[in-house]
């Protein structure tokens, strides 16, 4: 990998990268499945402990993928993944691995972390039309699936995101009046201010406190939208808000205590801001 990187940094011309051999492994920051639960009930979760930097096998290239070399970012997604809470990422990767042949590459005893990235393309799958070796690219963490047209307009509408545009009820959860106005302008049918239901404190609490406050938020959502299936997406609002949204989605789902409003074909999407 070092010789390939050096060639790219020196400005290897055109499709020259295609002539360079790909290594059998590459350097990555990763989490290990054997470390899930390592923090137990500890208050201080030092995410540096489960994060390891080392060589991992180069995966097989799918027809619609490219291989590029340079760097990937570490952000809040990485931090949350490294705490293994509220749900370990390995659970999602295992389910995703069952969806098709190439997806099985993600069901591994390790998880390579990182979101946005940049680099130079060195290989392109047979189905790739717009990029070729030598192209300098940046990569977003947003999912756009070529076989799911809905994701072309909004990546959050993909089946993998568990959000459907089928009579859904957008629910905004905010902490300020300006954010309230912003989400209503974007089309949220219901906006809940955390301060108004006693959840304005953004300090990170215990898992039990997170569950309790999430259930309170779930009850507030049910009171406004009725009995409904609730899915959850979050913005970069910080870990406390995201955790509460995750639990509110569970708490708001199909509760017998919910009002008898016929919304059985709808879903509510909770957006925390």
Describe this structure in words.
With 273 residues, the chain is of the alpha/beta class. The chain has a four-stranded parallel β-sheet, with helices on both faces. A three-stranded antiparallel β-sheet has the order 2-1-4, with no helix packed on it. It has a three-stranded antiparallel β-sheet with strand order 3-5-6, covered by helices on one side. It is globular. Strand 9 (229-234), helix 7 (239-251) and strand 10 (267-272) form a beta-alpha-beta unit. It is built from seven helices and ten strands. The model is unreliable at 228-244 and 246-268 (pLDDT under 50).
Instruction: Give the proportion of residues in helices.
Output: 25-40%
Enumerate how many helices there are, as a single number: 7
Taking pLDDT < 50 over at least 5 consecutive residues as the criterion, the unreliable ranges are 228-244, 246-268
CATH architecture identity of the largest domain: Alpha-Beta Complex
How are the strands ordered across the major sheet? Answer: 8-7-10-9
User: What's the name of the CATH homologous superfamily of the largest domain?
Assistant: Medium-chain alcohol dehydrogenases, catalytic domain
CATH class type of the largest domain: Alpha Beta
- Tell me the CATH topology of the largest domain: Quinone Oxidoreductase, Chain A, domain 1
- What characterizes the major β-sheet? 4 strands, parallel
Estimated structural class:
alpha/beta
Counting structural domains, the number is 2
What is the overall silhouette? globular
Distance separating the two termini: 41 Å
C-alpha Rg, in Å? 21 Å
Q: What's the total count of β strands?
A: 10
Query: Helix-strand pattern, N to C?
Result: HEEEHHEEEHEHEHEHE
- Proportion of residues in β-strands: 15-25%
Average pLDDT number:
75
């Amino acid at each position: 990998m070092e010789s390939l990187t050096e060639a790219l940094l020196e400005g290897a011309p055109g499709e020259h990268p295609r002539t360079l051999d790909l290594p059998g492994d590459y350097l990555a920051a990763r989490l290990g499945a054997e470390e899930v639960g390592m923090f137990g009930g500890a208050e201080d979760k030092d995410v540096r402990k489960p994060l390891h930097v080392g060589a991992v096998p180069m995966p097989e290239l799918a027809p619609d993928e490219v291989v590029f070399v340079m760097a990937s970012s570490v952000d809040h997604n990485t931090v949350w993944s490294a705490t293994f809470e509220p749900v370990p990422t390995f659970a999602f990767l295992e389910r995703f691995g069952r969806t098709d042949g190439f997806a099985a590459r993600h069901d591994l005893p390790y998880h390579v972390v990182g979101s946005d990235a940049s680099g130079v393309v060195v290989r392109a799958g047979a189905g790739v039309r717009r990029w070729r070796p030598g192209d300098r690219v940046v990569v977003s963490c947003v999912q756009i699936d070529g076989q799911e047209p809905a994701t072309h307009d909004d990546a959050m509408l993909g089946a993998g995101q568990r959000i459907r545009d089928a009579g859904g009820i957008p629910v905004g959860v905010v902490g300020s009046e300006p954010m309230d106005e912003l989400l209503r302008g974007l089309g949220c049918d219901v906006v809940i201010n955390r301060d108004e239901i006693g959840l304005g404190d953004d300090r990170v609490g215990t898992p039990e406190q997170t569950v309790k406050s999430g259930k309170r938020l779930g009850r507030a959502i049910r009171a406004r939208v009725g009995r409904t299936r609730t899915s959850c997406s979050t913005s970069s609002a910080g870990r406390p808000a995201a955790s509460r949204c995750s639990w509110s989605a569970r708490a708001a789902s199909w509760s017998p205590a919910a009002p008898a409003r016929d919304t059985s074909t709808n879903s509510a999407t909770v957006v925390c801001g």
